[in-house]
């Protein structure tokens, strides 16, 4: 799919979309939109996996943040030999509430026959999983790039007898973060998958998207990468730094914001709730339209750099059923990268 040029019409569209995202996100503080049904069944499956040793809850200390970080792990199906690891990040809430992979998707069943360890940090809300320039009065000290790329992997490799081969994937806020992390630590990850993330931080759209997440939680975005629009923001912009993704397996997806196959009243996430239906179509549609523009820009940039990548677009909103689908669609690529 081609990307429109940088004309004034496109800039106006981007800013309008981003402004709507900001105002709607402030009206609805949670940007994790669809709480899918069947949570009790998922809890039971997770409990069984824990009892059988297929799932683990760990606590890993971060020296850089001076805090303990909860980590949930799905262990590779066959541990007779060391296996690779996929780091799978949650969205804006960081997994600190019920908007996370285990409550919202079939991740436990999905991983049951996979010979890859899946590691999910259950913290990091509204942080963009990055190293903040300053301690924030509301969100505290955030050094997530340091934790995820330096502190956590050695602990995971030792605990799981992993083979040191890694990939990373994430949704929404973390869809931005995983690209930036793969660019920051290019030798750490063989593959990266971004689902419904805005791949920009140093554009009008990117800055406003960051502001919607961080500002909506009470944080100050000037504490992330220094002065807004300054060199720190450019240094963390996945599109600007896309050349650092060369040589990796890359999968990026976004809905268009238009109603898709999960956006109907009978879907599990909606279950006939007209108010929820309107909320997902309105808020989820607008946010996904914004990520769609960002994703098109990343695609254009990678094509210009002649860096191969898989992009997947389909009608759909910013909600968990689509991310569950995209994990499954991207898995063959991730698995090949991790086992090559």
From TrEMBL:
<dbReference type="InterPro" id="IPR000801">
    <property type="entry name" value="Esterase-like"/>
</dbReference>
<dbReference type="Pfam" id="PF00756">
    <property type="entry name" value="Esterase"/>
</dbReference>
<protein>
    <submittedName>
        <fullName>Alpha/beta hydrolase family protein</fullName>
    </submittedName>
</protein>
<dbReference type="InterPro" id="IPR029058">
    <property type="entry name" value="AB_hydrolase_fold"/>
</dbReference>
<keyword id="KW-0378">Hydrolase</keyword>
<dbReference type="GO" id="GO:0016787">
    <property type="term" value="F:hydrolase activity"/>
</dbReference>
<dbReference type="InterPro" id="IPR050583">
    <property type="entry name" value="Mycobacterial_A85_antigen"/>
</dbReference>
């Amino acid at each position: 799919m081609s990307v429109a040029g940088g004309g004034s019409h496109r800039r106006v569209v981007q800013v309008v979309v981003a402004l709507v995202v900001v105002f709607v996100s402030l009206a609805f503080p949670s940007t994790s939109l669809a709480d899918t049904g069947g949570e009790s069944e998922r809890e039971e499956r997770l409990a069984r996996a824990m009892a059988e040793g297929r799932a683990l809850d760990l606590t890993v200390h971060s020296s850089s943040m001076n805090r303990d970080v909860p980590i949930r792990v799905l262990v590779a199906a066959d541990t007779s030999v060391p296996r690779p690891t996929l780091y799978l990040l949650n969205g804006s809430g960081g997994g600190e509430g019920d908007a996370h992979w285990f409550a919202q998707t079939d991740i436990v069943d999905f991983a049951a026959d996979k010979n890859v360890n899946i590691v999910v940090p259950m913290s990091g809300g509204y942080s963009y999983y990055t190293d903040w320039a300053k301690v924030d009065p509301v969100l505290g000290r955030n050094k997530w790039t340091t934790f995820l790329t330096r502190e956590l992997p050695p602990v995971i490799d030792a605990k799981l007898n992993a083979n040191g081969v890694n990939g990373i994937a994430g949704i929404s806020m973390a869809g931005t973060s995983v690209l930036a992390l793969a660019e920051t630590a290019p030798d750490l990850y063989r593959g990266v998958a971004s689902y419904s993330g805005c791949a920009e931080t140093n554009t009008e759209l990117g800055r406003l998207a960051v502001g919607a997440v961080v500002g909506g939680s009470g944080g100050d975005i000037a504490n992330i990468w220094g002065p807004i629009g300054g060199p720190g923001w450019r240094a963390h912009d996945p599109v600007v730094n896309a050349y650092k993704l060369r040589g990796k397996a890359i999968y990026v997806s976004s809905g268009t914001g238009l109603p898709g196959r999960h956006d109907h009243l009978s879907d599990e996430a909606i279950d006939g709730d007209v108010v929820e239906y309107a909320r997902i179509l309105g808020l989820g549609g607008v946010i996904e339209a914004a990520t769609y523009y960002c994703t098109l820009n990343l695609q254009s940039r990678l094509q210009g750099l002649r860096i191969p990548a898989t992009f997947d677009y389909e009608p759909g909103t910013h909600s968990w059923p689509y991310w569950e689908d995209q994990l499954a669609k991207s898995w063959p690529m991730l698995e090949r990268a991790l086992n090559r």
